[in-house]
């Protein structure tokens, strides 16, 4: 079971780093526009994802709530 704990903690840390990179990309694109080298299209892709959830109505809302609840459950302190 220790191996699974190591994998779970690695996955949690990786997700936290990816969320930070997304936030950094959004901030960089808002500040500098579309000329940001490494974070090109982050805001566009994020807006597309949000529009997909919105256009799917109730199913999109349920999927979004499931994703948020899984993220909150995994990020809660043990």
Account of the 3D structure:
This protein has 78 residues and is mainly alpha-helical. The chain has one domain. Helices cover 82% and strands 0% of the residues. It has three helices and no strands. The protein is flat. The two termini are 16 Å apart.
Question: Can you tag this structure with a few keywords?
Answer:
78 residues
Low-pLDDT ranges: none
Alpha-beta classification: mainly alpha
Largest sheet: none
Number of domains: 1
Mean pLDDT: 80
Radius of gyration: 16 Å
**Helix count from the secondary structure assignment:** 3
Cα(first) to Cα(last) distance is 16 Å
The sequence of SSEs as H and E is: HHH
Summary, kept brief:
By secondary structure, this protein is mainly α. The protein has one domain (2-75).
Task: Record the SSE blueprint.
Blueprint: H1 2-32, H2 42-55, H3 57-75
Helix pairs in contact: 2-3
């Amino acid at each position: 079971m220790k191996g699974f704990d190591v994998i779970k903690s690695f996955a949690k840390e990786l997700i936290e780093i990816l969320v930070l990179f997304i936030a950094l990309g959004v901030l960089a694109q808002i500040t500098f526009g579309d000329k940001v080298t490494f974070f090109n299209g982050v805001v566009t892709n994020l807006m597309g994802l949000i529009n997909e959830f919105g256009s799917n109505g109730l199913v999109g809302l349920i999927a979004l709530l499931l994703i948020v609840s899984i993220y909150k459950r995994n990020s809660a302190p043990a």
